[in-house]
Amino acid sequence: MSMHDDQKPKIHFDHVRAVFDLKGEPFVALDDFDLTIGANEFVTVVGPSGCGKSTAMNAAAGLLAPTSGAVHVDGETVTGPGPERGVIFQQYALFPWLTVRENIEFGLELQRMRKPERREISDRMIELAGLTGFADALPKNLSGGMKQRCAIARAYAVNPSILLMDEPFGALDALTRVRMQEQLLDTWAQEKRTVMFITHDVDEAVYLANRVIVMAAHPGRIHRIIDIDLPYPRTEDVRLSTRFAELRNEVWNAVYHQQPATTKGSSQ
Ligand code: ADP
Ligand code: MG
Question: What is the pTM of this model?
Answer without folding.
Answer: 0.90
